[in-house]
Amino acid sequence: MKQYTLLTFLLLISGFLMAQSTTEVINIPSKDLDNFLAQSNYKFPTFTRAHVQLKNGEQATGRFNYNYFLDNLVYINEKNDTVALANTDDVDYVSFPVDSFFYDKKFYQWVASSGTATLAVRYTYRLARKDNVGAYGSTSPTQNVESHTSILGMSKYDLDGASQLSFEKTTTYYIRKTNGKFVSATLHNFERIFPKKDLSDYVQNNKLNLKKQADMVDLFVYANR
Q1: Are residues 69 and 147 in the same domain?
Q2: By C-alpha distance, which of 161, 159, 162, 119 is closest to 143?
Q3: Residues 169 and 191 placed together within one structural domain of the fold
Q4: How far is the C-alpha of 220 from the C-alpha of 124, rounded, in Å?
Q5: Which residue has the higher pLDDT, 178 or 219?
Q6: DSSP code at position 25
Q7: Separation between Cα atoms, residue 37 and residue 142, nearest integer Å
Q8: Distance in angstroms (rounded) separating the CA atoms of residues 18 and 14
Q9: Is 16 among the domain residues?
Q10: Largest CA distance in the chain
Q11: Residue numbers of the domain that contains 197
């Protein structure tokens, strides 16, 4: 019988059950907000021609990009306006030349796939804090966590050059069986999809950190062998 210390057991249980998420805190002066949004808003540097597959079998094409703050796909319409994609519940997936997004109540970005499963990731941003910068560089918080859409309506914050903004960027991995629903890419959910693989031992023996994309892909590739 395999012997585990209490600490090892607790670490295994933690990785077994918890969502595979990491959060990065990004601090910027409010005067740099426009530059930050310009660099972080979109997945691709330019709007790119993409193929939209609807659940009813119909198809469409257009110039698309993914807006992380809106948490939605946006496109250039015939008037050359930037418009958020409507009726997203009708979308099956959107394929770009070098990437794909799947829709299952929200959009998931493709990471890896096989005949059995799909591994995906979601990146989300939120304004976590707004500080007023006072004398000698001291700060005082004036705003609690806000939603993604509030970030785009910055006029409501009455920002000035003496404010500092703290954004949280969260990365979360998901997995689904082919034609199934996306669930958090925990070790537990991996083992539900690949019950014949000894995935716990593989993670432990190879010291995988399932909050890192390279290690997550490593586990996914092993599970599909």
Answers
A1: yes
A2: 159
A3: no
A4: 23
A5: 219
A6: E
A7: 21
A8: 6
A9: no
A10: 68
A11: 186-225
